[in-house]
Every structure is written in structure tokens, then in C-alpha cells.
């Protein structure tokens, strides 16, 4: 079957090339490779195959209203460290074909979809995180009027080069109420979604239902510079899972509420988000959630990112919050999370007191997250919610301020400070908590003709007793751009405050990149600190390692 799929992919690719005069061919190639080495500080590489590589070839073809695509993936001789074990060898990753017009779109094969904010359904690909949970099946979207769109779908989620056991059914409707009501300046949109997961299990309980249903209703409003949106989700009962076991006689439902308010005008933006989630983990194959955190983010039907500031610097990404949507009685009692964040963006114009000669930009973020209150009976596996606004133990709190200031026509600066409280016990389910403060200063000097140099220095203060992250860190980066095509860099973070001198490690990295047109080549050598790599609030754990990295990407 594997070789048959590869033959189909190559045949389709050849057909696309031959038929290019009758349509449009596009695509891309991406290769991410690493060679791991032994290091007296980060440790010897104990696994097989020091060289590992993730490679992706995608071809897209369109002809009038018809389209098709294939993606071949290769993980040879093995995938990069800590990727999903089922990403192994070379095979056909995804394929699809279909028809698209102004009113109708039909897709067969693998496809990506999102309903609303993603609380009930989102499928997507992120190669850095090792996520590709596309649905394999069919989808139909129909737009009878400009203000009406309905979608129906069925599929099984991608699981490595296979698919999960669970069937996913979905329906979504988007209605432009403002258009129907002839609003001139006011936007009002209503959305409704249904997603069902059907998976048969070998359970003796006659009341077990293989189908789990979720429903979402949404309302979006805009008026002038103000916008608001709200979404409520109801998740039907599903069998409880704990420490690798199904509790055949224990069932719980779940729910979520998301509220977003904002105001935007020239030079000012304010955005506030509140979210409450109770027992909202949702997998197309239940056993992916049996061990709690699903470290590889596989077979996840819905999208539950951490709603906190997404930072750009190494030291500000050591204490990273992960959303806590699950219900658990062991090892800790949890029912979900409640909290939110507020972002404020302000631009002070030139010539004002705070703007100065070139203007000033500031970005402020405050985020705060708690567990849900309630009464738990660990023996009987029951709990009673303490109420909609019952805030329990604090999980995470962070305040950050970023100031961007151009000093002259050639010099620009960025100063960032971050103050964080991190409850290790409840976020990572291991003992401890930490109060952390990080300061970062960055300066860029532009020589002209594309040449520039960027210097960054940072420091982290912490009272964490975890020896992998303990006490003070210092970091720095030096980057030089010869032109818009060629750049080199050197960076280092050092946990010099660790009380164990053997763990005081310089996590250095140096390398460069070359870009021409749609092709980019990057190479580096250095050490990787063990910890989380996060994109958009979703994280993957990367073990500590040392080695050479080569990245190649091109599009056509």
C-alpha cells in the first residue's frame, strides 16, 4: 500500500507537470535536518541515528475551477528528536482534489478546516511542532447568498501516515445578520457549529455511547472602532480517562465560553479576552488523551491555545504557560481553567512629549489564569462545579511591557520587561512554583544598502528551585545582515545562577542564512536548551541536545 501511494503521488506530479500548459502548477520543498553530537555539558547522544531529517514536498495544481494537491513526506533515517513516533520513513502524507466556484466548493481527500475560534474544530499543519491533523474524507461548502455559508464534512484525522480510529462529523453555518437587516455601518454575524466524534470501544457498560457531540454558537459584532465576539460551546458526555485507563462507569460533559472585546483606531488598540473551559479535551481517538497531556498533540479535534503574550526572546520563553482544559482527579484535582488577557497598543506620534523626533510605540500585556473551583471526590470520581466565576488556585500571571523607540535615522531600539508567576505544580504537574522577572534590551543600526547589525542583551531573575531552570540566566545575540540576502548570527543563554556548577551551561548557537527569491538556506551549530518550543500558544517539548542544523526551503 505504501509503494502504491508513492506511485500515485509521482504519477500525479508527472501529470501536473505535463498539464501545466492547461493550468497552473505551484509547490514547495522544505528540508529540516540535524546531526546530533556528544557534548560533555548537554550529554552524549544515546539514541540511534545521529543524523535525522524531516522533508516535505508539496505540489498544487489548479485548472479552471478544479484543483488538486499532494504532499510527500520523508523522515529518513528518522524524524528529528521528539517528533511523533509514527512519522517514520517516506510516504504520501496528504492528497486532495476538488472543485471550487463562487458558490460551491467540494473537497475529497485530506483537508483543513476551522469552525469559529476552533473550540470545537480546527485542523492545521505546523511542521515546527510536528502537527498535521488534517481530516481525510470529504467536505462540501455552499454559499447560496453573500451572507450565508454552510459547510458539511466527514473524515478521520491524520495520525502519522495513517488515520485515527474515530470518525469525525461536522456542520457549520455562518449568517451575516447585518446584511439581512440592512445595517449600513454595523456588522452582525451569527455562527452555529456541530462536531461529532464516533469511536467504538470495547466497554461492557451498556450505557456507553460511542458518539460524543459538541455544539457551538457564536455572535460577532462591529460598530465603528469597536468590536466584540462571543462563543459558547457545549460538549456532550464522554467516558473519563485517567493514567492510561478508561473509567467505564464514569462520564462527564464539558463546556467553554470565550468573550473578546476590542477597540482600534489610529495609534491606539485595546483587546481583551476572557475564556472559561471545563473538561474540553477532545480527541478523535480517545487513547491519545489517556495519559493526560498528549505530548505530541496528535488526534486533537479542537484548538485550545494558551491565551498569553507570545514572546520573541529565548529567556522570555523559558516559563511558558500551556492551557489547562482537562478534567483530572489524579495526580491533582482539576476541572479546567478560567482567566484572560488584555493587550494595549499605543503609538505616540512624532513631535509629542513621549513620541520625540521619530515617535514611540508601546505594547502592554496582562494575563492571568486560574483553575476552576469545585468540590472533588477522588474516590468516587465525582465533582461539582463551584459556579461559573469560581476562581480557584492561580496557575499563571504575567505582566509585560515593550517599548519601541527610533533614536535616529539609523538607530532603533526595543526594551522589554516581563514579570511572571508560574505554578509549576498545576501547569506541569510536578512540584514547585516560580516568580520570574526578565529584562531585554535590543538595538539595531542600519548602515544603508541593506546592511544592518542587531545587538540584544537579556537577563532573567528567578526563585525557581528546579535545577534545570534555577536562579539567574543571562543571554545575548549579535546579528549582522550583509544585505537583504545574507545574514549571520551568534547567540548564547547561560544559566550562571544554577547552584549546581555542572549544570551552568552556555547554550550557544551560531550560523547564518542566505535568501534568494523564494529560496532560503539556513545553517547553524550549537546547543538546544531542553524545554518547550511554542507556536501560537501550542507547545512541543524538545530535549536538551547539541548539533548541526540545516534548513532549506523553496517555493515555485
Please describe what this structure looks like:
The structure is a single chain. The protein has 556 residues and is mostly beta strands. It has a domain at 306-494. It is built from 3 helices and 33 strands. The protein has helices spanning 2-18, 177-180, 424-427; strands spanning 24-36, 51-63, 66-75, 89-100, 104-111, 114-115, 121-122, 125-126, 131-132, 135-145, 148-159, 162-163, 167-176, 186-198, 211-223, 226-242, 245-265, 268-278, 336-348, 360-372, 374-377, 382-385, 391-406, 411-422, 434-448, 451-462, 473-481, 486-494, 506-516, 519-528, 531-535, 538-542, 545-555. The strands form 5 sheets. It has a 24-stranded antiparallel barrel. The longest helix is centred in the N-terminal third of the chain and has 17 residues, at 2-18. The protein is globular and about 65 Å long. The two termini are 30 Å apart. The mean pLDDT is 93.
Radius of gyration: 25 Å
Structural class: mainly beta
> Fraction of residues in helices?
under 10%
Any idea what the shape is? globular
What is the helix tally? 3
How many DSSP-defined strands? 33
Describe the largest sheet. Answer: 24 strands, antiparallel, barrel
Strand content: over 45%
Alpha-carbon distance between the two ends: 30 Å
* Low-pLDDT stretches: none
Overall mean pLDDT stands at 93
Amino acid at each position: 500500500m505504501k509503494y502504491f501511494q508513492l506511485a500515485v503521488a509521482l504519477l500525479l506530479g508527472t501529470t501536473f507537470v505535463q498539464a501545466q500548459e492547461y493550468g497552473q502548477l505551484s509547490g514547495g520543498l522544505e528540508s529540516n535536518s540535524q546531526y546530533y553530537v556528544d557534548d560533555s555539558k548537554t550529554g552524549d547522544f544515546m539514541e540511534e541515528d545521529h543524523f535525522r531529517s524531516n522533508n516535505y514536498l508539496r505540489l498544487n495544481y489548479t485548472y479552471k475551477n478544479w484543483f488538486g494537491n499532494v504532499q510527500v513526506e520523508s523522515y529518513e533515517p528518522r524524524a528529528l528528536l521528539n517528533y511523533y513516533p509514527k512519522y517514520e520513513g517516506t510516504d504520501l502524507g496528504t492528497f486532495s482534489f476538488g472543485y471550487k466556484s463562487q458558490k460551491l466548493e467540494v473537497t475529497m481527500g485530506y483537508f483543513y478546516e476551522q469552525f469559529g475560534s476552533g473550540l470545537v474544530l480546527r485542523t492545521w499543519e505546523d511542521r515546527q511542532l510536528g502537527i498535521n491533523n488534517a481530516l481525510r474524507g470529504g467536505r462540501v461548502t455552499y454559499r447560496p447568498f453573500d451572507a450565508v455559508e454552510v459547510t458539511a464534512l466527514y473524515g478521520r484525522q491524520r495520525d502519522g501516515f495513517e488515520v485515527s480510529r474515530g470518525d469525525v462529523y461536522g456542520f457549520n453555518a455562518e449568517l451575516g445578520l447585518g446584511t439581512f437587516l440592512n445595517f449600513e455601518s454595523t456588522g452582525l454575524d451569527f455562527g452555529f457549529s456541530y462536531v461529532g466524534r464516533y469511536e467504538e470501544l470495547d466497554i461492557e457498560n451498556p450505557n456507553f455511547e460511542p458518539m460524543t457531540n459538541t455544539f457551538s454558537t457564536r455572535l460577532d459584532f462591529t460598530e465603528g472602532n469597536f468590536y466584540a465576539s462571543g462563543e459558547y460551546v457545549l460538549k456532550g458526555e464522554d467516558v473519563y480517562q485517567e493514567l492510561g485507563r478508561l473509567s467505564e462507569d464514569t462520564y462527564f460533559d464539558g463546556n467553554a465560553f470565550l468573550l473578546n472585546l476590542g477597540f482600534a483606531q489610529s495609534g491606539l488598540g485595546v483587546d481583551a479576552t476572557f475564556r472559561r473551559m471545563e473538561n474540553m479535551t477532545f480527541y478523535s481517538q480517545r487513547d491519545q488523551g489517556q495519559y493526560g497531556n498528549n505530548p505530541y498533540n496528535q488526534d486533537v479535534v479542537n484548538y485550545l491555545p494558551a491565551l498569553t503574550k507570545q514572546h520573541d526572546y529565548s529567556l522570555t520563553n523559558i516559563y511558558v504557560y500551556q492551557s489547562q482544559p482537562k478534567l483530572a482527579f489524579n495526580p491533582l484535582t482539576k476541572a479546567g481553567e478560567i482567566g484572560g488577557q488584555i493587550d494595549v497598543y499605543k503609538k505616540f506620534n512624532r513631535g509629542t512629549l513621549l513620541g520625540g523626533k521619530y515617535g514611540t510605540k508601546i505594547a502592554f500585556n496582562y494575563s492571568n489564569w486560574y483553575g476552576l473551583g469545585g468540590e472533588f471526590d477522588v474516590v468516587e470520581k465525582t465533582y461539582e462545579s463551584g459556579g461559573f466565576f469560581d476562581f480557584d488556585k492561580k496557575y499563571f500571571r504575567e505582566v509585560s511591557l515593550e517599548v519601541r523607540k527610533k533614536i535616529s535615522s539609523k538607530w532603533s531600539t526595543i526594551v522589554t520587561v516581563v514579570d511572571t508567576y508560574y505554578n509549576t505544580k498545576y501547569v506541569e504537574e510536578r512540584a514547585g512554583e516560580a516568580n520570574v522577572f526578565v529584562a531585554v534590551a535590543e538595538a539595531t543600526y542600519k548602515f544603508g544598502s541593506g546592511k544592518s547589525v542587531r545587538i540584544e542583551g537579556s537577563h532573567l531573575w528567578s526563585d525557581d528551585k528546579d535545577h534545570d531552570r534555577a536562579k539567574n540566566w543571562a543571554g545575548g545575540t549579535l546579528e549582522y545582515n550583509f544585505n537583504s540576502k545574507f545574514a549571520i548570527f551568534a547567540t548564547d543563554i547561560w544559566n550562571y545562577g544554577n547552584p549546581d556548577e555542572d549544570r551552568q551551561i552556555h547554550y550557544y548557537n551560531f550560523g547564518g542564512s542566505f535568501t534568494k527569491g523564494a529560496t532560503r538556506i539556513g545553517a547553524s551549530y550549537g546547543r538546544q536548551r531542553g524545554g518547550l518550543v511554542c507556536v501560537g500558544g501550542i507547545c512541543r517539548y524538545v530535549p536538551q541536545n547539541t548539533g548541526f542544523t540545516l534548513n532549506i526551503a523553496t517555493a515555485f
